[in-house]
Fold these 2 entries.
Entry 1:
Amino acid sequence: MKKCVALVLSLICVLGLVGCNKKSMNYIISNEPNITGVVEEVGENSILIYIQNDGYPYGADCSVSLDVENKDGLYSPITVGDEVVVYYNGSIAESDPLQISTVYAITLKTPADRNVNDQS
């Protein structure tokens, strides 16, 4: 009986530790790779950005998943023309357009001119 209780308590501790794996925004911003780009399209599950980082892949289109691991790290609403910073795991799929699937956070760097967009 004691072994059973010890096993159950051990499982509870392990499962509790697994749930504590969420990275804070401060950690993400300080430690994760990022790219900067301008939003060209907003879809239901992803956005298309035009990358403006120095070096590769400057000037390329990139599809970015909106399935953000840190839900506090997704500003809303994302609008065409916004300049955003995408924090991700460092892996960009070499496709056309490029793709980022593992996204930790998306933050707003420079908002689009909302007045211009509203008049269109």
Entry 2:
Amino acid sequence: AFKNGELRGGKKGGDALAEGGARVPFLVHYPNVTKANTTCDIPIQTIDVFPTLMEIATNEKYKNKNIQGKSLMPLLKGERSKKLEKRYLFGFRSYEDQYASITYRHWKMIKYHSGKFELYNLNEDIGEQNNLIDTETKIAKKLKKKLAKWESEAVSEF
């Protein structure tokens, strides 16, 4: 049977934007660039794969502003990247009550069609058991604003 350890949620069924549904391993072998048995704790999204492959193919930074993804080359080289560390990552599922998420650094907010919000500090609560939406009001307000802006730009047709 599939188990998520301490992570809440799964790949299907109502809680897919929780860490158990959203996290998947990403493995890369790039000869003479990546080092064996190296791990990285910076979250990425599949939208980052295309600019990374374009940079590998052309040996130049990929700079198309219409592409939301960021090249992962600094991470593949074992470097830190403030652009990747400090960005907002968004999740979306249009067909369930739990339908949108935003992750910024160690903070994650999940929004429901019903109007409910959840906020978690993933550094302290990777299992998303302690909803901080009513106590961490400053970061909650910031993430709600960013999520609303993203929704108006990216998912308004849903």
